[in-house]
């Protein structure tokens, strides 16, 4: 990957939007890895293989010529399977005919959800630290982020924190549970608080549940299942993380028929459809039994419990995640700011992490923290641990 310059050009005149959108620091930190030959604990992607049955199903779908555009709303059998999953795991009854749209990853899902709801100048509440994409996603629709900063170790949300933002006037709130980068899992009490305020102040919710099965001590609750939220919530979800297929670009959006009709129109003109053969293959994933999901969470819990204590022992100040596959840690013991800390770590320890600044308000005093991704083979984590042990002694 090469960095693209947006310096003023005598030839090209870019949109304001293009100038507003900065390069992703998450993807950029992968470049450190190439430069220094570091182990990539930066970008949120597993380095182990996808389930064999899925690869086989994808090969079979391509071989049997399921290679043309799919139904724009998503292959109907896949939509039916998603509806069944939502009934079984989220206790929400969904009509697959009118309420589900299969799209190109949760990334497209978030963008179409925002395009459906947000006009220029609409305020959208996000909780900091947040997933990096939310800011550029909002910039593309002209939405204005309203930030609430959460604090470790609980990252808890209270009514006092929420009220000023709701009183100011919001069009929507984005909830990410389990959350990237903090691993926060929203509790029922917190979700009920959001539900109460969304109804009182007439606010929509977009809920990004991409890590719903990567969960440790707490249970995952979908905001849409909370009283009064059924028709004012857009659920964004996907297959990338649960089935270890981030490259397939498959996700889905669930919303009431009225919202879904608009989501579908926008989605159709952006991508027409998600990749057809991979939708057929994803049906195989939806048929995996309960054991698959239990093993997934157990495996990630084991990896978390392998990596987290080492960070503690070396004198970092990590926060134990309750879900997702990241560890957030203070990095002020390494350098004066997060970018320098990430650079030092990649160069000296040959381990790449993402600087916490990209998960934070752009104008706020710089956050000095790092995010490590532990969705890696045990051997990768062990090599990273050995490297860290050689140069990191902060305690
Ligand atoms: N939401 C969050 C919170 C994520 O961490 C990611 C991936 N890093 C996405 C959405 C994007 O998922 P997808 O691969 O389905 O586009």
Automatic annotation (TrEMBL):
<dbReference type="GO" id="GO:0016212">
    <property type="term" value="F:kynurenine-oxoglutarate transaminase activity"/>
</dbReference>
<dbReference type="InterPro" id="IPR051326">
    <property type="entry name" value="Kynurenine-oxoglutarate_AT"/>
</dbReference>
<dbReference type="GO" id="GO:0005737">
    <property type="term" value="C:cytoplasm"/>
</dbReference>
<protein>
    <submittedName>
        <fullName>Aminotransferase class I/II-fold pyridoxal phosphate-dependent enzyme</fullName>
    </submittedName>
</protein>
<feature type="domain" description="Aminotransferase class I/classII large">
    <location>
        <begin position="39"/>
        <end position="386"/>
    </location>
</feature>
<keyword id="KW-0032">Aminotransferase</keyword>
<comment type="similarity">
    <text>Belongs to the class-I pyridoxal-phosphate-dependent aminotransferase family.</text>
</comment>
<dbReference type="Pfam" id="PF00155">
    <property type="entry name" value="Aminotran_1_2"/>
</dbReference>
<keyword id="KW-0663">Pyridoxal phosphate</keyword>
<dbReference type="GO" id="GO:0030170">
    <property type="term" value="F:pyridoxal phosphate binding"/>
</dbReference>
<keyword id="KW-0808">Transferase</keyword>
<dbReference type="InterPro" id="IPR015421">
    <property type="entry name" value="PyrdxlP-dep_Trfase_major"/>
</dbReference>
<dbReference type="InterPro" id="IPR015422">
    <property type="entry name" value="PyrdxlP-dep_Trfase_small"/>
</dbReference>
<dbReference type="InterPro" id="IPR015424">
    <property type="entry name" value="PyrdxlP-dep_Trfase"/>
</dbReference>
<dbReference type="InterPro" id="IPR004839">
    <property type="entry name" value="Aminotransferase_I/II_large"/>
</dbReference>
């Amino acid at each position: 990957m090469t960095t693209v310059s947006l310096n003023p050009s005598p030839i090209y005149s870019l949109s304001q939007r293009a100038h507003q959108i900065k390069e992703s620091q998450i993807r950029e930190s992968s470049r450190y890895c190439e430069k220094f030959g570091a182990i990539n604990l930066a970008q949120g992607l597993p380095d182990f293989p996808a389930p064999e049955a899925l690869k086989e199903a994808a090969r079979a779908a391509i071989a049997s010529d399921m290679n043309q555009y799919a139904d724009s709303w998503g292959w109907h059998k896949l939509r039916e399977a998603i509806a069944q999953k939502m009934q079984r795991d989220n206790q929400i009854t969904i009509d697959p005919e009118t309420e589900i749209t299969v799209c190109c990853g949760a990334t497209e899902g978030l963008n179409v959800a925002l395009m459906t709801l947000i006009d220029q100048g609409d305020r959208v509440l996000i909780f900091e630290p947040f997933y990096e994409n939310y800011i550029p996603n909002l910039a593309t629709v002209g939405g204005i982020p309203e930030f609430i900063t959460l604090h470790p170790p609980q990252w808890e949300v209270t009514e006092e924190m929420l009220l000023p933002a709701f009183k100011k006037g919001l069009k929507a709130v984005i909830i990410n549970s389990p959350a990237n980068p903090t691993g926060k899992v929203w509790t029922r009490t917190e979700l009920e608080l959001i539900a109460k305020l969304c109804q009182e102040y007439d606010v929509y919710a977009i809920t990004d549940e991409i890590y719903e099965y990567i969960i440790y001590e707490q249970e995952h609750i979908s905001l849409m299942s909370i009283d009064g939220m059924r028709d004012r919530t857009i659920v964004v979800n996907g297959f990338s993380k649960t089935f270890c297929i981030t490259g397939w670009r498959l996700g889905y959006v669930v919303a009431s028929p009225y919202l879904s009709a608009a989501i579908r129109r926008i989605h159709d003109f952006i991508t027409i459809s998600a990749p057809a053969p991979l939708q057929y293959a994803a049906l195989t994933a939806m048929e995996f039994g309960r054991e698959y999901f239990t093993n997934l969470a157990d495996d990630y819990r084991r990896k978390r419990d392998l990596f987290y204590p080492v960070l503690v022992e070396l004198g970092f100040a990590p926060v134990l995640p309750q879900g997702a596959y990241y560890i957030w840690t203070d990095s002020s013991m390494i350098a004066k700011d997060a970018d320098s800390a990430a650079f030092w770590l990649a160069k000296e320890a040959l381990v790449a992490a993402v600087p916490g600044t990209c998960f934070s308000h752009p104008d706020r005093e710089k956050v000095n923290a790092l995010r490590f991704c532990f969705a890696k083979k045990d051997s990768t984590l062990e090599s990273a641990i050995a490297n860290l042990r050689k140069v990191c002694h902060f305690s």
